[in-house]
Design goal:
Blueprint (H helix, E strand, L loop, with lengths): L1 H4 L8 H15 L2 H10 L5 H23 L5 E3 L3 H12 L4 H20 L2 H8 L2 H22 L3 E4 L3 E4 L5 H18 L5 H16 L30 H7 L1 H29 L11 H18 L4 E3 L3 H6 L5 H21 L8 H10 L12 H16 L3 H18 L8 H16 L1
Antiparallel strand pairs: 1-4, 2-3
Helix pairs in contact: 2-15, 3-4, 3-5, 4-13, 4-15, 6-11, 6-12, 6-13, 8-12, 8-16, 8-17, 8-18, 9-10, 9-16, 10-16, 12-13, 12-18, 12-19, 17-18, 18-19
């Protein structure tokens, strides 16, 4: 095991990797409950969505660990699942089989781009300053997710966002999670992020935030497996409708753009914490990561779990010491077990993970000193990424704003030659993507 996962080479151990895997799993466990509830709005049976979510995440996270040997975990992506439920199924009236077929087609398209080297080439064409900006923006985004889940920040019609009610039990659990994580980290306690989650979860019991499970074991439901090849309500196979309808192919392109750059940003964020990001902002051995992530999108559509993608919460496990694929393998095994014990796993509230995500966001701010803010070409596009990712609540949107800003600033300042051809391609693609939103 040590030689396969290179634990000694990466100054890690089996116990550290298993602990990091548990931290990652707990930080992501909310998806077991949230994804089925969202997909239910699109007509997907809840029990089947739970099975698909857990098994899809488990298989693809294990695959990520084995083939990339990096501490990255995969699960159904937030955002795309909402598009499936509320736009494709709800707004356009498509059956969930066709919606999953669109995900399936989009995943195949991304995989082809990876195999031909285009996805990796675009990543290499990104200026170093923008890579740092992506890492910082992801840090703020992760922290924002944590603060939202912990009730520390809430939606407000007048100010868009505001401080939550300090007497709210969810707020208190989130605050306990942050305090416990920071205190334990300051004391150099091993597994501080994991302990922060567990302490907050226990404290949430008397506060009514950590609920008792309704049952222990839940039966598996494979109804959604093979969704793209099932007949829709009108009797047409989902994948046939997806590839023969121009408007649906445009949707596949839109989803592909989101998946394409979300994974790039996530990989950089986790690589920063997992110590496999080079000094110039490149992710080491990125191709296996991109291949597995692309296959995960295909698998998500095939299983009926929505698009499965690399989760930014993986950074919590990397920050807790995860350095190899063993972290992912263990997290994946936990997801497979969760398919049977989902009522118990769902008791860990997202508020309890608040501290881990906020602390990871803090760690990722370190890149801010590597940016030359006096150079408008380096500073302004980077700022657009940093601000765009959390403020639009989208990794791909923030990256797109930064890419377009870079091309515009470089052109008007006479630094046209600094724009690599693939940056032009990516910026134009983003412009089209924004016009389609």
């Amino acid at each position: 095991m040590d030689s396969f996962f290179k634990l000694g080479e990466r100054n890690s151990s089996v116990s550290t990797e298993l602990r990091a895997g548990l931290t990652t799993f707990l930080a992501m466990a909310y998806i077991i409950v949230v994804n089925p509830l969202i997909l239910e709005a699109g007509g997907v049976p809840v029990s089947a969505a739970v099975t698909a979510t857990c098994i899809g995440a488990g298989i693809m996270t294990i695959a990520m660990g084995i083939f990339s040997n990096r501490p990255l975990a995969c699960a159904s992506g937030m955002g795309i699942n909402s598009i499936v439920a509320y736009t494709l199924c709800g707004g356009m009236g498509l059956g969930w089989q066709t919606a999953m077929a669109i995900i399936f087609v989009e995943g195949i398209a991304i995989l082809l781009l990876v195999l031909c080297g285009l996805r990796e080439a675009i990543m290499d064409a990104i200026p170093v300053s923008l890579r740092h900006g992506i890492s910082i923006g992801l840090g703020l985004f992760i922290a924002m997710i944590g603060l939202k889940d912990g009730g520390i920040i809430v939606a407000n019609e007048a100010t868009m966002v505001s401080l939550g009610a300090v007497t709210d039990p969810v707020f208190l659990v989130g605050l306990i999670s942050i305090v416990a994580t920071v205190v334990l980290s300051s004391m150099n306690v091993k597994g501080a992020l994991l302990w922060g989650i567990l302490i907050a979860a226990v404290c949430g019991i008397p506060l009514g935030v950590t609920a008792a499970p309704s049952s222990i074991v839940a039966p598996l439901d494979f109804t959604t497996f093979g969704a793209p090849f099932q007949a829709d309500a009108d009797g047409v196979m989902g994948v046939v409708k997806a590839i023969t309808t121009p408007s649906l192919l445009l949707f596949a392109f839109s989803l592909m753009m989101s998946d394409f750059f979300d994974t790039m940003g996530t990989a950089m964020a986790v690589a920063k914490q997992g110590e496999f990001l080079t000094h110039d902002g490149k992710v080491e051995d990125i191709k296996p990561i991109l291949i597995v992530d692309s296959v995960a999108a295909i698998a998500g559509g095939a299983l009926g779990a929505s698009s499965i993608t690399t989760f930014v919460e993986s950074a919590s496990g990397a920050a807790d010491g995860g350095r190899s694929g063993l972290t992912s393998v263990f997290a994946g095994i936990l997801f497979l077990l969760a398919a049977f014990f989902s009522p118990v796993i769902s008791c860990i509230s997202s508020a309890a993970t608040c501290g881990a995500l906020v602390y990871v966001g803090f760690l990722m701010m370190s890149d801010v000193v590597d940016i030359d803010w006096s150079d408008i070409l380096e500073g302004f596009p980077t700022f657009m990424i940093i601000a765009g990712i959390p403020f639009t609540y989208s990794i791909s949107n923030g990256i797109g704003l930064g890419f377009i800003a870079y091309v515009v600033v470089a052109t008007v300042t006479g630094q046209f030659k600094k724009i690599r051809p693939l940056m032009w391609v990516a910026s134009i693609a983003f412009l089209l993507y924004f016009l389609m939103l």
